[in-house]
TrEMBL record, chain A:
The lineage of its organism: Bacteria, Pseudomonadati, Pseudomonadota, Alphaproteobacteria, Rhodobacterales. This is Inner membrane ABC transporter permease protein YcjO. It holds the Pfam family BPD_transp_1. One of its GO terms (cellular component) is plasma membrane. Belongs to the binding-protein-dependent transport system permease family. Keywords: Cell membrane, Membrane, Transmembrane, Transmembrane helix, Transport. It comes from the Bacteria. It is found in: Cell membrane.
UniProtKB/TrEMBL annotation, chain B:
GO terms for cellular component: plasma membrane. It is found in: Cell membrane. Belongs to the binding-protein-dependent transport system permease family. GO terms for biological process: transmembrane transport. Residues 197-387 form the ABC transmembrane type-1 domain. The chain crosses the membrane at residues 36-54, 61-82, 88-112, 132-153, 201-225, 237-259, 265-288, 309-334, 368-387. It is a multi-pass membrane protein. The keyword RNA-binding does not apply. SUPFAM superfamilies: MetI-like. The lineage of its organism: Bacteria, Pseudomonadati, Pseudomonadota, Alphaproteobacteria, Rhodobacterales. It comes from the Bacteria. Its main location: membrane. This is Inner membrane ABC transporter permease protein YcjP.
């Protein structure tokens, strides 16, 4: 007699469901892979390359055609050169049309030949920085200005190219070596940590305060809540430039106000002096992101069971006791998740500092450093090396994050 | 500390400092003239006031009104909580006096309400402190939020000379009429801001549609189907949040330069949705999980295919969530600065944020920059205030992203 077993393995229905699921996810997966995963691999690759902004174009031959001299000495000149100073290019050829009514005075030089009116030259390989000059003396009965037009009417075509630095297989640790050489990296790292830690904690504390204020229903609560979200909702470029204008040492209102109130004697250069600029960008970060923590904390507060507070009232707990012993423990979960998330996001922040100080006056964080290296010094490889360091840091953070968030949100 | 005759003066002194600073800053911004709070005198006047307010409990006791009147009148001399410049218009001083007296009276009456003169219970004491903190909090947050926006709007209406002359003077000369809006007119006429506005608008709308088209099916799959790798998938969505944009921007810049997509709206429209799809997917899957499966199962029983169920049942049910997600994505795309800054060089193809960045040069006057900032901010604010409910929901659901 056989006993009945529950089915094992995946049935046809489950298989079909899984297939549909992957089908629905495919567009997202593909696009994300193209724009996130691929670039990340590329960053990793580039960080091992001596790659600069000028290497963006692979080395290629460049040709210039001109008409020179007059009478007997009238000649067409082609100048071919290698666009790169140190990379070799191969398979360099040049082809052009000899215009009607123009005849060559002498035999063609070595690498060239003429078939009908088609001119073809094969230069083979050209070393870095090499140039070739081709002079064709011509006889013609055309007027000079007409001649110029017909000669330049047919543009010469060059072929050939070299290997881009990107696709060559050699790797070097040069970028990393330069990154960690000298104390600069650790200064930048310290600044990043200061900005991240204080920006995150500040925004959380302010958000908690604002949430406590609004955690009661009264008329106009919705309006005030909307108002307090302004800093977060407005475009960063608008608010950052407003802060720069407001704190300008010459025409800024903040300085005028402080001088008038007798707080300071002379104008303070808020975004230009060394320790102050870092504090100011951190304050800006707190100002811009307290609405976010405020919104999250408020949402959590409103879902706390009121019965607990009623019980506490019955027991005679004072308002502060209720806050410390009831609200805060209830909020601890959302606070820690927010802390981790905001920590990671503040660590990643680029636009704010870039717009406020451009990374000057001791405010260069790691992300700003990526931009500085890659575009200001135009060494993309060095920028990519900084980016890799950032990614490694983030990997550590997200490890902690998932340990916490899986407990908090059951993800 | 828990004695009414101690709590009252301390809170009174602190409150008057807050009020005096507020009134002085507000009056300075409104008139451009000099108002200076004197913290020492504020403490004294406030302490006396606090003492009187706990001693005389009647809401409009004579002593209360007298101390307010005395304090206000003291502002005519150097002994008031705020000193004003010598050649100040009398009307401005009177307004400041009235504002300060009213602020002190109503503030203290509310804060020290139900606070007896003698020993306080723990409840009475803490309630008074909390009321003080609440008042301070409202003033503080409202000030820090409003002042930058006020400065932004007012600066855009001033002229360069007026700004340099007195950076505090934001009073508007109404008599100038339409001349006030000169920076705006110039931006739209000479700097192409009309085009930028339109570019930003359609790029954002396209981003919203593409994002929804990709993320709705994906979110549904993650929320409803059981398949291998589901958990890993929802986690990796969150991981993508954490990759900084500048790290991605570097290779994207290289790839776009090589393929000729740099400097084209097409490139921007291709890249924006990818930055928003993970956010939208995360938000939507949370919502889909909350929808009852029974309705969908009923649809399946009645012979609809899965895709038809999504189209005919799930989507109509999740319209509010779709609205929140759309608004949030629109906001991200509208405010996006970094990619536009790096990928667009040609002034005829700028988005609005890129256009504003262009105005940040020493040759272009400040009020133009501020007018540009206002133009970039107003549409998103209008949208936000009009649809506050959806927006707030969208922010809470999705703003794991900064």
């Amino acid at each position: 007699m056989s006993t009945a077993h529950p089915p094992t393995g995946t049935g046809a229905l489950a298989k079909r469901e899984a297939r549909l699921a992957w089908g629905l996810l495919a567009p997202t997966l593909i696009s994300v892979a193209l724009v996130v995963v691929l670039p990340l691999l590329a960053v990793f690759w580039i960080s091992f390359k001596p790659f600069t902004l000028s290497d963006l174009r692979p080395p290629a031959p460049i040709v210039r055609e001109s008409l020179r001299g007059s009478g007997e000495e009238m000649r067409i000149e082609y100048r071919v050169r290698n666009s790169s100073q140190d990379e070799m290019i191969s398979g360099v050829t040049l082809s052009d049309q000899l215009p009607e009514g123009v005849a060559l005075r002498e035999a063609l030089p070595e690498p060239c030949r003429l078939e009908g009116r088609d001119l073809f030259c094969d230069f083979g390989e050209m070393a870095g920085g090499a140039r070739e000059r081709l002079r064709l003396r011509i006889a013609t009965d055309l007027a000079e200005d007409v001649l110029e037009e017909v000669v330049e009417g047919s543009a010469p075509v060059v072929t050939g190219g070299g290997q881009s630095v990107l696709s060559s297989p050699q790797l070097s640790l040069e970028n990393y070596k330069r990154l960690f050489d000298g104390g600069e990296f650790w200064t930048v790292f310290g600044i990043t940590l200061f900005y991240t830690v204080f920006g995150t904690i500040g925004a959380l504390v302010m958000g908690l305060f604002a949430a406590l204020l609004l955690n009661k229903s009264f008329k106009g609560q919705g309006f005030i809540r909307g108002l307090y979200l302004f800093p977060y909702v407005a475009p960063v470029i608008a608010v950052a430039f407003t802060w720069v204008t407001l704190f300008d040492p010459f025409s800024g209102s903040a300085n005028a106000l402080l001088i008038q109130m007798g707080v300071t004697q002379e104008a303070i250069n808020f975004f230009g002096d060394r320790p102050l600029a870092l504090i100011m960008v951190t304050v800006f970060e707190i100002w811009r992101y307290f609405p976010l923590s405020f919104l999250f904390i408020l949402a959590r507060m409103q879902s706390i069971d009121t019965a607990m507070y009623e019980a506490a009232d019955m027991d005679g707990a004072s308002p502060f006791q209720k806050f410390w012993l009831l609200s805060l423990p209830q909020l601890l979960g959302i606070l820690s998740v927010l802390f981790l998330l905001r920590f990671i996001w503040t660590f990643n922040k680029f636009d704010d500092i870039f717009l406020l100080t451009g990374g000057n006056a001791g405010t260069r964080t790691l992300t700003v450093n990526v931009y500085e290296q890659a575009f200001a010094i135009s060494n993309i490889g060095a920028g990519a090396a900084v980016a890799v360091v950032i990614l490694l840091c983030l990997l550590c953070f997200s490890f902690f994050f998932f340990k916490f968030i899986s407990r908090e949100e059951g993800l | 500390m828990r004695k009414g005759y101690l709590t009252g003066p301390v809170l009174g002194a602190l409150w008057l400092c807050v009020m005096a600073t507020t009134v002085a800053v507000a009056m300075s911004f409104a008139t451009g003239a000099a108002f200076r709070p004197q913290i020492g005198l504020c403490l004294i006047w406030g302490a006396v006031g606090g003492l009187i307010y706990v001693r005389f409990a009647a809401p409009h006791a004579v002593a209360r009104l007298v101390i307010n009147a005395l304090m206000a009148l003291a502002m005519m001399t150097v002994w008031g909580p705020i000193v004003t410049g010598a050649d100040m218009a009398l009307s401005a001083v009177v307004v400041a006096m009235a504002a300060l007296a009213a602020g002190l009276h109503f503030g203290l009456a509310a804060i020290l309400h139900d606070t007896p003169f003698g020993a306080l219970t723990r409840h009475e004491y803490e309630a008074a402190v909390i009321r003080f903190l609440t008042g301070f909090g409202y003033i503080f947050f409202t000030a820090i939020v409003l002042i930058p926006f006020y400065v932004m709007v007012m600066t855009s209406l001033k002229s360069q000379q007026a700004l340099l002359q007195n950076p505090l003077d934001f009073s508007i000369e109404i008599s100038k009429g339409t001349e006030l809006f000169r920076s705006y007119v110039e931006l739209f006429r000479d700097f192409n801001f009309g085009t930028y506005l339109w570019t930003s608008f359609y790029v954002s709308v396209l981003t919203v549609f593409i994002t929804l088209a990709f993320s709705v099916p994906g979110a549904y799959a993650v929320a409803r189907f059981r398949f291998r790798g589901q958990k890993a998938f929802s986690r990796s969505i969150l991981l993508i949040y954490m990759v900084p944009m500048i790290v991605l921007a570097l290779p994207i810049y290289i790839a776009f330069s090589m393929t000729g997509l740099r400097n084209s709206i097409l490139g921007i429209v291709l890249i924006y949705p990818v930055t928003t799809i993970p956010v939208a997917l995360y938000m939507l899957q949370g919502y889909f999980r909350g929808l009852p499966t029974e309705v969908e199962e009923a649809g399946l029983m009645d012979g609809l295919s899965r895709l038809a169920v999504i189209w005919k049942i799930t989507l109509p049910l999740s319209l509010p969530a779709l609205a929140s997600v759309s608004l949030y994505v629109f906001m991200i795309a509208w405010n996006e600065f970094l990619l536009a800054f790096m990928l667009l060089d040609d002034p005829s193809k700028f988005t609005l944020t890129r256009g504003v960045a262009m105005l940040n040069s020493s040759e272009i006057p400040r009020q133009h920059l501020m007018a540009g900032a206002v133009i970039a901010t107003v549409p998103i604010m209008v949208l936000f205030l009009g649809l506050e409910r959806f927006m707030t929901k969208g922010l809470t659901a999705g703003s794991v992203k900064g």
